[in-house]
Design goal:
This protein is mainly alpha-helical. It has a domain of 49 residues. 56% of the residues lie in helices and 0% in strands. It is built from four helices and no strands. The two termini are 45 Å apart.
């Protein structure tokens, strides 16, 4: 646990004792070491389809069930539920 905390702190930029960034930066600019720009958000549809592909590769009823629970309104949720049910039915036979 401490290792994770130390690793997280090692990535933080220096901050003055007041908790404010150094004043050496020009107005409106973040000084070096401060991540002022965030990456744009990813494509949610692409992420869901990628997750479904990963579940397909695993090929477990549990994986399909979890996918359907995580994304109940997505069209792939019905397919995931269908596949989970079919796998569970084959397991019972």
């Amino acid at each position: 646990m401490l290792g994770l905390l130390a690793a997280a702190c090692a990535n933080e930029a220096p901050v003055a004792a007041t908790g404010e960034p150094p004043r050496s930066a020009a107005k409106g600019e973040m000084p070096a070491g401060f991540a002022g720009v965030m990456a744009p958000p990813g494509d949610a549809e692409e992420a869901i389809r990628s997750e479904f592909a990963h579940i397909e590769a695993q090929g477990t009823a549990e994986g399909y069930t979890v996918f359907a629970l995580r994304h109940p309104d997505h069209p792939l949720a019905k397919e995931a539920e269908r596949r989970a049910s079919a796998m569970k039915a084959r397991k019972r036979d």
